[in-house]
Amino acid sequence: DAKTTQPPSMDCAEGRAANLPCNHSTISGNEYVYWYRQIHSQGPQYIIHGLKNNETNEMASLIITEDRKSSTLILPHATLRDTAVYYCIVRGYNQAGTALIFGKGTTLSVSS
Amino acid sequence: DAGVTQSPTHLIKTRGQQVTLRCSPKSGHDTVSWYQQALGQGPQFIFQYYEEEERQRGNFPDRFSGHQFPNYSSELNVNALLLGDSALYLCASSGMDRGRPYEQYFGPGTRLTVT
Q1: Fewest Cβ atoms nearer than 10 Å: which of A76, A109, B83, B87?
Q2: Which regions in chain B score pLDDT beneath 50?
Q3: Distance between CA B34 and CA B55 in Å, rounded?
Q4: Do B44 and A102 touch (CB under 8 A)?
């Protein structure tokens, strides 16, 4: 699996968009970008994943650069409940249920 | 539909003892993975069970063992507990789910403290 690099921490004002970057310069052609988040003392929660097109769901948007070497998770209107550690993970889509390799992630702090 | 459930929620054990943690996967999921999360770190993969067999294993000693039952539930056993085994133990299940294959769904975890 390709390695990812994320900033250790970010701050965001409530109601503003939170843009969380991730670098994955060694990503290969069949690897997807996954995002999970972990609210304090809870299990990680799946957010979104994508290959090369931008993706959007009810939780967030994922923007992947054309060269696929980096991506940005966007929470359009951050709330206090979005305060969590956000993990960017790269793995192959056909690795059905195989191990997720977590780094240290980005701690997002949303304040009022 | 209940998600992934784990028991117990908290546990305190003494060095040298043995512990068993339990996990019930999300309905319709057939694969269970276990992770260890030390304080301030990301989760670390222990092993994964599918069709009652260990399919994949991370870099953990043989003191860590597991089992999967015919109903897909799973147990994690840790023998000869060390202080360093104190952590949050997470169970994740996976399978086809509403057209989203293979994302892992995590339980709330079991907090193990070894004294």
Answers
A1: B83
A2: 99-100
A3: 12
A4: yes
Can you give the pLDDT at residue B19? Answer: 98
Secondary structure of residue A46 in the 3-state scheme: strand
Classify residue B72 by its DSSP letter. Answer: S
Any chain A CB within 8 A of the CB of B43? yes
B95 Cβ under 8 Å from any chain A Cβ: yes
pLDDT at B98: 54
Within 10 Å of residue A112's Cβ, how many Cβ atoms? 7
pLDDT of amino acid A108: 98
For A10, phi then psi, to 5°, come to: -150, 150
Closest CA to B37 of A36, A44, A22: A44
A9: its two tokens: 């921490």
Return the amino acid letter for A101. I
CB-side exposure of A31: number of CA atoms within 13 Å?
Answer: 19
Q: Is A59 helix (H, G, I), strand (E, B) or coil?
A: coil
Residue from A21, A18, A27 nearest A67 by CA? A27
- From A100's Cα to the closest Cα of chain B, the distance in A is 7
Backbone angles phi, psi at B83, to 5 degrees: -55, -35
